[in-house]
Design goal:
Order of helices and strands of chain A: EEEEEEEEEEE
Order of helices and strands of chain B: EEEEEEEEEEE
Number of strands of chain B: 11
Distance between the termini of chain A: 41 Å
Mean pLDDT of chain B: 93
Strand content of chain A: over 45%
Largest sheet of chain A: 6 strands, mixed
Oligomer: heterodimer
Largest sheet of chain B: 7 strands, mixed
Low-confidence stretches of chain A: none
Shape of chain A: globular
Largest interface: A-B, 23 and 19 residues
Number of strands of chain A: 11
Low-confidence stretches of chain B: none
Number of helices of chain B: 0
Structural class of chain A: mainly beta
Distance between the termini of chain B: 36 Å
Helix content of chain B: under 10%
Radius of gyration of chain A: 13 Å
Chain lengths: ~110, ~120
């Protein structure tokens, strides 16, 4: 059974720092890996989707990498801003099409 | 585009009552997903529809839960009778292509359900 783990559960950094969020999964037979952002009281917003054949995806200050063989993904945020404060969730889509989510990393960027 | 619209945003009711959650997907999206989020279990898929037809309901916790999609612009998730352990945030999401499509899902803002 696929399990997705995100460490740390919470992270606090000063504004301007570069930071890395981690995601690991137990079954490497994935179709894609997705990173989402969730603001308090809101739904999820899709940030990046990495197909199983890809190694990374970039969008603005965000870069996500995927290493299927080791079951790991990282989300790199450059030059963090207070507006980046949110919970970041990682999800993997398996061959049956079901999205399995991690429990998220709650990020706080202090001005 | 108004995005995925869910109602109500908050629902507080007593144990044993029937609860109905509503969702309007993004126009043109033919896949609709219902999720439940709790602190203990995180975000879990309950059921999803393609062209108004339920495709996978293996995540529905028990017979007290039912979901319908009578047309392309409306879906309901019903709990009858409700129990305190059903307290959670319920999300609806839609996409214009479904699973295994590398297309992102678009989420509503959720319904926060509290069963007393």
């Amino acid at each position: 059974k696929q399990e997705v783990t995100q460490i740390p559960a919470a992270l606090s950094v000063p504004e301007g720092e570069n930071l890395v969020l981690n995601c690991s999964f137990t079954d490497s037979a994935i179709y894609n890996l997705q990173w989402f952002r969730q603001d308090p009281g809101k739904g999820l917003t899709s940030l990046l989707l990495i197909q199983s054949s890809q190694r990374e995806q970039t969008s603005g200050r965000l870069n996500a990498s995927l290493d299927k063989s080791s079951g790991r993904s990282t989300l790199y945020i450059a030059a963090s801003q207070p507006g980046d404060s949110a919970t970041y969730l990682c999800a993997v889509e398996g061959s049956q099409g079901n999205l399995i989510f991690g429990k998220g990393t709650k990020l706080s960027v202090k001005p | 585009d108004a995005g995925v619209i869910q109602s109500p945003r908050h629902e507080v009711t007593e144990m044993g009552q029937e609860v109905t959650l509503r969702c309007k997907p993004i126009s043109g999206h033919d896949y609709l997903f219902w999720y439940r989020q709790t602190m203990m279990r995180g975000l879990e898929l309950l059921i999803y529809f393609n062209n108004n037809v339920p495709i996978d309901d293996s995540g529905m916790p028990e017979d007290r839960f039912s979901a319908k999609m009578p047309n392309a612009s409306f879906s309901t998730l019903k709990i009858q009778p409700s129990e305190p352990r059903d307290s959670a945030v319920y999300f609806c999401a839609s996409s214009f292509a479904g699973t295994l499509s590398n297309q992102p899902q678009h989420f509503g803002d959720g319904t926060r359900l509290s069963i007393l």
